[in-house]
Amino acid sequence: VKQHGRNGFHFFTQELQERVMNKIVLEEQLHSGVLQSQLQQYYQPVINASNFNVCGAEVLLRWNHPTRGILTPDSFLDAVEELGFLSEIDTTSRRLACNQLAEWHLTKLVDKNFVLAINASEQLLNEESFLTTIKSDLDNAGLFGSSLSIEVTEGVLVSNFDKTAAILNKLKDIGLTVAIDDFGTGYSSMAYLKWLPASTLKVDRSFVQNVPESAADCRVLKAIITLAKSLDMSVIVEGVETIEQAYLCREYGADMFQGYLFSRALSPENFADFITKHNPN
Ligand code: C2E
Ligand code: CA
Ligand code: CA
Ligand code: CA
Predict the structure, then answer these.
(1) How far does the centroid of ligand 1 lie from the alpha carbon of residue 60, in Å?
(2) Contact residues of ligand 1, CB 6 A cut-off
(3) pTM surpassing 0.90?
(4) Does a cis peptide bond (omega within 30 degrees of 0) precede residue 212?
(5) What number is the ipTM of this complex?
(6) Are 116 and 57 in contact (CB under 8 A)?
């Protein structure tokens, strides 16, 4: 029955079947720890807007797949989260990143003001042991709390504001920075900003991608940065891809940039190369 091909329904079931298969394979790999061993921490430079030096990095997960190469999180993170492995992976990832930073301190690649940004999922924030493991990671690596910034999305806050706010305030108590990630893409209104227990705002890439061509987008971007600055927040603009965007964001008052204009996320070795070439000593 050679009827498959043009039949949309057939395509749909085939695709669905593939997705289910992939998830089963993924689950097996997670349970056996195979996948965990293939995950790597990559580092995207965060740039100081006033002197364009590297002042930090965001830790971004990459899957070094044996046959498919380096994969970005959109191809596997949702499934990892659904299967309940995200907090385990984030916990390991944070420990490794703390050790990496300690090594960079030792080799004087970065100074004590360098900030490592780490993504925290809702699952992770709600783990009983979240705070104590952060503290022991810092202690074991010999780092101060001020070396870490924890990024949470608005969505995580909105879903259980009081509980999440309490956890974030505890992070602030031990010196960590709390940053709101992807700001503007969630459900919270601008007025809500003053209630957020965060000192840093990461403006989502969607607000900068049509700048400077779209005059309306320029005004919205300017309004967001101005409002955050008036609340004494530090502002990082994500997804800066052109020099025009960088200058404009700086003019609007942004403190830091992150984006392909400067660099994509890099392996530790390439990150070390990048910072050596980029920062004056
Ligand atoms: P995010 O936290 O918003 O991270 C920024 C994403 O934007 C990264 O994608 C980064 O590579 C990308 N990006 C940075 N600059 C530019 C640019 O100039 N142009 C464009 N088009 N993109 C840019 P990535 O690495 O694919 O990560 C996607 C998302 O996956 C992250 O979004 C974050 O939500 C999540 N994620 C990544 N690593 C981890 C992790 O270790 N744990 C958790 N829980 N989530 C992670
Ligand atoms: Ca982030
Ligand atoms: Ca983001
Ligand atoms: Ca994102």
Answers:
(1) 6
(2) 44, 59-61, 72-74, 77, 86, 90, 93, 119, 121, 181-182, 205, 238-241, 258-260, 265
(3) yes
(4) yes
(5) 0.98
(6) yes
